Amino acid sequence: MAAPSDAKGRAASSVQGLVRELVHQFTDPLDFYRELIQNSIDAESNRISVTLDYKDGRAVAGVEDDGVGMDGRIIDEFLLVLFRSTKDNDLTKIGKFGIGFVSVFAMAPERVQVFTAKNGESWRLDFPSYKHYDKYRMPALRDGTKVELTKAMTLQEYGAFSAASLAKVRYWCKHADTRIFFQDRTSGGPEVPVNEPFELDGAASLRYQEEGTEIVLGFSAEPRPFCGFYNRGLTLKEGEQDFQPGLQFKIKSRFLEHTLTRDNVLMDDNYRKAMAIIARLADRELPRRLKADLVELAQAVGRNPAAEALPQEWARRLPFLRRLFSGRLSRWRRSDWAVFPVLGGKPISLAQVHAAVSAGRGVLYFDAAANRVTEALGRRGLPVLPEGPWVAELAAWSGGARLLRASGALYLPRPLDDQELGSELLGFIETLRRMDADCGAKYRQLLPADFDYPGSSIVDRHFVTSRAPGELGSISDRPRPSLLWLGRERLCALLNIRHPFLCRLGRLHQQRPGLAAYLCLKTMHLSDGEVPPAQGDKFCNLAEKTERRLLESALTIDCTQAHQGGRT
User: Are 362 and 402 contained in the same domain?
Assistant: First the structure.
């Protein structure tokens, strides 16, 4: 049975007003978890348990530790006296203002109880409110301290209270050096560990430690990257910052302190020293880490450009790379960094990009995947970048290079040997060649070809021309007029044998070879050139003569076919 002591207390009216103001300083009533856990950590606890229960229409929230408890002297001289703390001038302790315990009254509880023991003394304190308390000496000793508050609420309100409590404890205490557990006994669930590794989202790129201080740095694509400040793992402040572009960080240090209002890190000399360490790491150590990361990512992207996570990781490092490449001199100093991916090849440097743009007449090529066109450009010594966040940056850093999707700007059908064709298509191709020759041999060669490859921009065309089979052609090249080729170099015509139009003509060729060949060549003449305005009259005369020759050739072929078939 508890033995009442002579320590019944009531605060003076002036003190009550001050306490009331302190209670109201806590913008979130659940911040009492932070204050009580902070006290438990300062008491050198090895384990802290946060428990919730619901009994008789009331929520009971408790924070219990196994640390150094309190005896009567500490209770009277420190716990119950505002602004006094046994932790003053001790950098191993977090709370230094002696007002943390007041936070429990921000919940407006019906009752707060404290159970504690030290030096052979065991005590219970009952607080019906912050205005007065009862203090009882207990017969049984205990380990550490337990603070328990009771508040009336509905079961539905309790469910929300439990979820919010867990979220709040995790926010404030996830990186605590002491083990912390949370349990909702009403739900019947097990204890949940609160502690999380001291890491950054997306993993840390650099970790630094010295006595009393640990820092993790990472890259970030956010305009205002994340920053977090902690003392012995308890959150002092988490938020966004703009003084270190492209860099997110967390710093845990026993030298950092919170402000009196508990909502920010105190920006004193220790804070400035910590930020100086981060700035030094960002200037000296992190660039080396960035280069190594980007080389590894560029190699992986070059091998597998379709992997979505790789460009995202590269993009996460881009703001910090922009910071390092922010001026011409800084870019020149790092122009040998081979950190930019190439389709199917080794990463290249900014200097190599400059050379490629110069060789490509001001064009920088990129594409979604390797294909015939990108491979042909590579054989010419022109690297093709995978599609990704590096493309636009390199164009800007290369003096405004013109960006072109390789497979959209160029084409490269694969010529087929006659042996690769069936007899029907081979016969059709031979008829086309004979008719073209009869009418003046506009084309140097008429060849079947495969137009279907990844990214092909000509798969819907039924033919293209080029100077030589297997040579890159440009989509932007203007075709030559069909009827004004005399005196010019003749081109090769490559036919898309899978095009539906040519497939239909191939079937027609079996019955009407002349008509099929005439329709094909006529379409080619109409499609592959524009006539200069000054040549209009001449073109009309040539068109009539050429069409007459095509028709005469078609009739000759069909008449021969009919005669051989026994028709008249």
Answer: yes
Task: Tell me the C-alpha distance between 150 and 58, whole Å.
Answer: 6
What's the whole-model pTM score?
A: 0.76
Based on the fold, state whether residues 480 and 553 are members of the same structural domain. yes
Burial 530-550 (b: 16+ CB within 10 A, else e): ebeeeeeeebeebeeebeeeb
What's the total number of domains in the chain? 4
356 neighbors 364 (Cβ within 8 angstroms): yes
Q: Tokens for 80, please give them.
A: 């119950």
One domain for residues 177 and 237: no
Range of the domain at 55: 3-193
Top-confidence residue, 559 or 442 = 442
* pLDDT score, position 169: 97
Whether the CA torsion 134, 137, 138, 144 is positive or negative: it is positive
411, 435, 468 - which closes a domain:
411
> How many Å apart are CA 555 and CA 549, to the nearest integer?
10
pLDDT tens profile 469-488? 888 988 887 655 544 445 56
- Which of 164, 193, 222 is where one domain is finished? 193
What integer pLDDT is reported at residue 265 of this predicted model?
92
- My answer on whether 20 and 140 are in the same domain is yes
Residues 6+ apart with CB under 8 A from 394: 340, 350, 353, 364, 385, 401
Rounded CA gap, 518 and 497, in Å? 17
Cβ neighbourhood burial of 380 (10 Å; 0-12, 13-18, 19+): exposed
The dihedral sign for the CA sequence 162, 168, 171, 177: negative
Helix H or strand E segment including 400: none
In single-letter form, the type of residue at position 264 comes to N
d(CA 530, CA 435) in angstroms, rounded, equals 22
| Angle of the 32-42 helix axis to the 155-173 helix axis, nearest 10 | 50
